[in-house]
Amino acid sequence: MPDNIPPHSLPADVLRVDEGLVCGDDQPYFPAQLGEPTFAAHDEDGRRLYMVTPRFRRIVTEWIAITVEATSDHLRFRWDGDDLIVTDHDALHDDTDPTRGPAVERLRPGADGRYVFPTWLWHVHDPATERLDNTAHAALAVLATDDPLHLDTVIRYVTENTYPAPDPRTLRDIRAQHRTLAGSPTAPAKATESEDTHDE
Biggest alpha carbon distance in the chain? Predict the structure, then answer.
């Protein structure tokens, strides 16, 4: 993020007042609470670049996990109550002993219920160059409410803004699997028919 662009000059109509937008490579933007920027490096033009550590609400964390799992050949996610378990089949626990299996990381929510992906790199939305279309506005408005309904709105947004584009059915299936295994009060045992059809 260049230091001459305000970090929070983002579309207020679809974001909570304390959140901004971030994305991973080839992924859609998701709302997050952004910490204080810390200096990272200078770019080729001599501008100072900063890093932020985004902190995500539960519903947003669920959609990040669904999106990444749908497009990754080595990352898998599952919920253990309120903890998100990330399994990386490409990163072994011990490089000298490949029989030990994949690396497993447990992400616990902070005191405010938000999640951090400590080793992931995120890009901050630049409203000067990147405009959000109607699909993005609709999906981000849904994510701002913590409402698990309007599933098709978010699936459409993820499909249109992820590369390679995941199959909508795959997103729906991964979401159902994650929520079935979660065992959390915020995650019903099964995706209900009303979730699948209640949209717009």
Answer: 54
